Amino acid sequence: MVLNRVGLDVFGAGTDTTHSVMEWGMSELLKNPEILQKLQAEVREVTQGKPEITRDDMEKMQYLKAVIKETLRLHTPVPLLVPRESIQDVKVMGYDIPKSTQVFVNAWAIARDPMLWENPEEFRPERFLDSSLDFRGLNFELIPFGAGRRICPGIYFAISVNELALAKLVNKFNFTLPDGIKPNDLDMTEAPGVTIHRKLPLHAIATPYSF
Question: Alpha-carbon distance 179 to 203, whole Å?
Answer without folding.
Answer: 10
